[in-house]
Design goal:
The chain is an alpha+beta fold. It is built from ten helices and eight strands. The strands form three sheets. Strands 1-4-3 form a three-stranded antiparallel sheet. A three-stranded mixed sheet has the order 6-8-7. It has a two-stranded antiparallel ribbon with strand order 2-5.
Length: 293
């Protein structure tokens, strides 16, 4: 007859060991995130590289992009096995993926909770197949560009007018709480400028953020605009990360991560609005389902 007490003891021991492994795994990811946040905020080169990788992987959170970069400094475009399969590409044998956090739901005491589990993603260099990553390309004088610009207008927190932008392509005027866009610039220039000035207006928050200044918010606004432009193939110079080190000086790794996440979430919000204008709802939903964040 089976020793029930011994079986219960073994089951409890296995459960505790599993919990400990999961706790250690979470701690490891947290440590990697902290290390990555410090690295990209202490080097202009690393920061600009992060912007490139984030723009090329727009559906992934800043935290997961930094985790991927920390495990594979040469990472370019990555996806889950399911995501690559949906794009007609397969992960090659013996390839080891990069660990990221994947949203998960679980039930405890009859209530449903949201948490995360550890998943793996693979760089495109770890895959084979004919499928290619296809993204919308916005060009001047195109219907798609017109739709994208319209969507940016819808997400602007302040009115947008055309007029004298004081020698610039566009300018957020905090005294009037409006964005002025020059009427003599190309569609691409308007896209770059509008996405940037929307960030300035959002930070100012109708005057509710009394510490707003154009200089202190320039890096964040320029970074969001650059990522959005790169995501849609719109020509845009890399930001000049002047004051990067000073901006993050004295901040702990988690606080630095929070600032980077704010940049990513603002970029993601603008991009989501544009996608709604460019893609039929069914296609947008299908793309979202093919990717694990």
């Amino acid at each position: 007859m089976a020793n029930l007490s011994e079986l219960i003891r073994q089951k409890e021991q296995q459960t505790e060991e599993w919990k400990q492994r999961k706790a250690d795994e979470r701690d490891s990811l947290n440590e990697m995130n902290d290390a990555a946040a410090l690295r990209v905020t202490e080097s202009t080169g690393a920061f600009l590289h992060y912007l490139d990788v984030q723009a090329d992987n727009p559906r992934f959170s800043a935290s997961n992009v930094l985790l991927a970069m920390e495990q594979n400094p040469e990472v370019t475009v990555f996806n889950s096995v399911k995501g690559w399969n949906g794009l007609n590409r397969n992960v090659m044998r013996e390839e080891v993926g990069m660990k990221i956090r994947v949203g998960d739901t679980y039930v405890r005491d009859g209530r449903q909770y949201r948490g995360y589990k550890v998943g793996r993603v693979f760089d495109i260099s770890q895959t084979a197949g004919r499928g290619q990553m296809v993204k919308n390309q916005l060009t001047d004088n195109s219907d798609a560009m017109s739709k994208a610009l319209y969507q940016l207008l819808t997400v602007s927190p302040v009115p947008v007018v055309t007029g004298d932008a004081r020698g610039q392509d566009a300018l957020y005027d905090p005294s009037q709480q409006q964005i002025i866009v020059s009427g003599y610039i190309s569609d691409s220039a308007a896209f770059r400028a509008l996405s940037r000035e929307i960030v300035h207006a959002g930070i100012h928050d109708h005057g509710n953020f009394p510490y707003y200044s154009r200089e202190s918010c320039a890096l964040g606004a320029d970074s969001v605009s650059y990522m959005l432009c790169r995501s849609y193939g719109v020509p845009c110079e890399k930001p000049k990360p002047v004051g990067l080190v000073e901006m993050f000086d004295g901040l702990e790794a988690r606080d630095r991560m929070g600032v980077i996440a704010d940049f990513q979430q603002t970029f993601s919000a603008q991009r989501a609005a544009i996608q709604r204008g460019l893609m039929p709802p069914q296609q947008e939903k299908k793309q979202e389902q093919s990717v694990e964040r």
